[in-house]
Amino acid sequence: MEESADNKRLRAAVHYSIQEACKSLPVSKECVALVTELTLRQAELLANDLECYSQHAKRSTINGDDVLLCARRNPSLQDALREKQETLPGPSKRKSKQKPDIFE
After folding, report:
1. CB of 53 within 8 A of CB of 66?
2. Cα→Cα distances 33→17, 36, 47, 83, 89, Å
3. pTM of the model
């Protein structure tokens, strides 16, 4: 199966980034290639998980809650993601889709 042009560019960009990050370290070309492959496979697994979480919630868009769910086994990452999420502008809340609060 031949790789698409977009996938080739992505693979090259990831490889270059890893190579640049390892410039000052004694790392072989084989090691850079393996880390590149590991990174791409991990990103693919993450993308698949995010897609499944959003579909399970009956949404067509992945949101921050899906990302936090992926990070559930790493509390420090989850905390860092929550902090970052608080600094980002959030989507406007639609009052018509929210369930009424019966305790108000």
Report:
1. yes
2. 11, 5, 21, 33, 37
3. 0.73
Reference 63, options 96, 93, 33; nearest CA is 93
- What's the DSSP call for residue 94? P
- Residue 83 structure tokens: 């902090």
Cβ contacts of residue 9 below 8 Å, gap of 6+?
none
Q: Are 68 and 82 spatial neighbours (Cβ–Cβ below 8 Å)?
A: yes
* DSSP annotation of 1: -
101 three-class SS: coil
If you average pLDDT over residues 27-46, what whole number do you get?
96
Q: Determine the 3-state secondary structure of 71 from DSSP.
A: coil
Q: How far apart are CA 22 and CA 34, in angstroms?
A: 13
d(CA 69, CA 79): 12
């019966």: which residue's tokens?
102
Average pLDDT, the chain: 88
- Say yes or no to pLDDT of 95 above 80: no
